[in-house]
Amino acid sequence: MFIKKTREWEISENQILPESQYFNRRDILKAMGVGGLIAGSSGLLLPGSTAYAVESDPSASLYPVPRNEAYTGGRELTPEEIATTYNNFYEFGSHKSIAKKAQALKIRPWTVKIDGMVEKEMEIGIDDLLAKMPLEERIYRHRCVEAWSMVVPYSGFALAELVKLAAPTSKAKFLVMETFEDKSVAPGQKQFWYPWPYTEALTLEEATHELSFMATGLYGKPIPKQNGAPLRLAVPWKYGFKHIKSVVRFHFTDERPQTFWEKLNNREYGFWANVNPEVRHPRWSQATERDLRTGNRIPTEIYNGYAEQVAHLYKDLGKTEVLFK
Ligand SMILES: Nc1nc2c(c(=O)[nH]1)N[C@H]1C(S)=C(S)[C@@H](COP(=O)(O)O)O[C@H]1N2
Ligand SMILES: [Mo]
């Protein structure tokens, strides 16, 4: 367990309460471990010196879930404290320290819409969805296009299971996913030059690939808001920006969409975004990456080391196209 265990008496209420406008007192006490919660799974994070309360998550009792040993990550896990405090989530700011701000996101009620080219459009609450899906834990490597990487245990379900539930028609070729939109909690969304809401997309073949995973948990607990609660994509052979967070909509279509980063800068962030050490980002090399656990640079592998599983999906694409087009 990597959360620093802090005894109640080391945190004065003054430090906690100013950040607590979104939570009731019972939740705060619970997060502090006063409510009899096991310390290791308590929601209180202390990144550096900033303490903030974390709302208790109604799905907490679902975790931990059985680990699927087929997905091992290949190198040592990144400490939880790093993975939950070094984030990209532009809705809350265009820097890495958004964990505290992201606590403003309200994750209940959370309705997921499934629409477009499907047998039957539907809206489903996250807890109903979680109850329908077979949850398991997988350790995945995560490689950001900015050339840093980590190894994290996600809990969740295969995206193929959601596609099955949605029952796309034979016309559907792409699955477009969309993040929540609410300027009142996400200050980044007031920045009008970004094409909100954040969207990402996969081909249906990619979406139903066994590696495509919807993460609902992290380190054996509900996934923290800063990591994309309550529902976040993990496609470990693709750069991190494809891993869309806090998804509210799954839209099936026959047209390849333009996604958030592609709209912003299609020379740097393309549709495929497959990890490829040989294709430079226009502004830097992708040959190596910085492992967030050690700080060391390590070689980047084609498809982030998942070539055996996914290379066949791209056999008809050119080398550059695999990344950008
Ligand atoms: N909605 C949304 N999803 C997002 C992003 C974002 O800014 N907004 N950033 C992406 C990027 S660039 C990365 S590297 C990962 C980071 O996930 P993590 O913070 O859980 O490591 O989330 C991805 N998903
Ligand atoms: Mo990223």
Keywords for this entry:
5-stranded mixed beta sheet; binds molybdenum atom; 8-stranded mixed beta sheet; 325 residues; disordered N terminus; binds the ligand Nc1nc2c(c(=O)[nH]1)N[C@H]1C(S)=C(S)[C@@H](COP(=O)(O)O)O[C@H]1N2; Sulfite Oxidase, Chain A, domain 2; alpha+beta
How many strand segments? 13
**Whole-number mean pLDDT:** 87
Distance between the termini: 41 Å
Radius of gyration: 19 Å
Q: Determine and state the CATH class.
A: Alpha Beta
CATH-defined architecture: Alpha-Beta Complex
Bound molecules: the ligand Nc1nc2c(c(=O)[nH]1)N[C@H]1C(S)=C(S)[C@@H](COP(=O)(O)O)O[C@H]1N2, molybdenum atom
Q: What is the CATH topology assignment?
A: Sulfite Oxidase, Chain A, domain 2
Helix content: 10-25%
N-to-C series of helices and strands: HHEHEEHEEHEEHEEEEHEEH
Number of domains: 1
Q: What quaternary form is this?
A: single chain
What is the makeup of the main sheet?
Answer: 8 strands, mixed
- Hey, roughly how much beta strand do the residues contain? 15-25%
Give me the secondary-structure category. Answer: alpha+beta
